[in-house]
Amino acid sequence: MPTAFYVGALACVIALVWSGAQWRKLKRTPALNDSSRRRGLEGANVQAGPYRMFFRFARATAGSTAQSVPVVLVHGLVVSSHYMEPLAQILARDFDVFAPDLPGFGESRLARARDVLSISGLADALHLWLGACGIERAAFVGNSFGCQVLADFASRYPQAVTRLVLQAPTPDPRARALYQQAWRAFVNGRREQPHSPIAVGRIDYAKAGLWRAFATMRMLVRDPFSERLAHIAAPTLVVVGTRDPVSPPDWAAQVARQLPHGTLSMIEGGTHTLNYASPHAFAFAIAPFLKAAPANAQAEAQAEAKAATQPQENQR
Predict the structure, then answer these.
(1) pTM value?
(2) pLDDT tens digits, 121-131
(3) Domain AB hydrolase-1, which positions (predicted)?
(4) What angle do CA 292, 167, 313 make, to 5 degrees?
(5) CB distance 45 to 63 below 8 Å
(6) Which of 22, 39, 197, 200 is the most buried (most CB within 10 A)?
(7) How many CA atoms within 13 Å lie on the side-chain side of 212?
(8) How far apart are alpha carbons 262 and 95 in whole angstroms?
């Protein structure tokens, strides 16, 4: 065979070996780094039922008027709570903030590489984690796929949710194919430069593994997200960036209309991962909502009580 063939084959082998080494290096990346600590973030593990779950947290800044209810940040597709750090740092001026890695992602490992929890399974794990941390009620903020987990969670565990923020909820029913989601994510990545969480995402994809990443993507596009919205009793703020190609503004507006207590907020020029790419604008948009007392406390209490009496199994 010609020399060029052997040279090409050797180059391919070297590239594969190098890629495998880089992949393993990414998997070994520590959960917290110097940037995390400068932001005031700490990390801990807790046993939540059968899951050993890692979470980041930041206590309200000393001297601030800390709100009584903590804020829990729920990450999106395949990634971990790592990309929630910029938002957590800002919200910690007024709140105790917690950001768990859902089982199978980040540092919350599952026993086998092919183990994948369903969306309801992830919501149940979140509930177990709250109990393990001693958190009875919280306000929740989700991004992208995290909104799907929170929609399931809030519909089945209404007593645990005081307020809900759904930022860039997925899936837009006009993009139910994986290739459509992939293209929209690519466009979003280009729009978010130079503040894209892609570098952080590479680490999280390596830790989750390609099998779990693909299986979770399939769950995202098949999830009956809209069917859960009518069962969410908590006041809910839907937030979307005007330049978000993954969760376009008209789709976010439709989500807000389907919620019993939904409100829409649009951030001019914002993209899909506002928590990382535009954390100050995002925090500015949601902080008043998270701090606000209910406009009608009695009506809200009645709505929560009604939701709490609904059989959980019928809301799955």
Answers:
(1) 0.86
(2) 999 999 999 99
(3) 70-195
(4) 85
(5) no
(6) 197
(7) 25
(8) 23
What's the half-sphere exposure (Cβ side, CA atoms, 13 Å) at 219? 21
Pairing of strands 51-58, 42-48: antiparallel
Q: What is the CATH number of domain 31-308?
A: 3.40.50.1820
3-state percent breakdown (helix, strand, coil) of the chain, nearest 5: 50, 15, 35
CA distance 159 to 56: 23
Show the tokens assigned to 46.
Answer: 């807790």
- Check if the beta carbon of residue 246 is closer than 8 Å to that of residue 168: yes
Cβ-based neighbour number of residue 30 at 10 Å: 9
Encoded amino acid at 227, one letter: E
207, 80 in Cβ contact below 8 A?
yes
- Residue 34's Cβ-count burial label (10 Å; 0-12, 13-18, 19+) is exposed
The Cα 232–Cα 157 span in angstroms is 9
Determine which of 81-85, 98-102, 162-166, 174-178 has the lowest per-residue pLDDT on average. Answer: 174-178
Which residue bears the tokens 């989500």?
A: 255
Question: Could you tell me which of 135, 111, 141, 158 has the C-alpha nearest to residue 275?
Answer: 141
- Type of residue found at 72: V
Which position has the token pair 């997200």?
225
Question: Which tokens is 189 given?
Answer: 């990545």
Buried/exposed code over 227-263 (b: 16+ C-beta within 10 A; e: otherwise): ebbebbbbbbbbbbbebbbbbbbebbebbbebbebbe
Query: Do you know the residue count of the chain?
Result: 316
Coil, strand or helix: which one is 264? strand
> How far apart are alpha carbons 168 and 177 in whole angstroms?
18
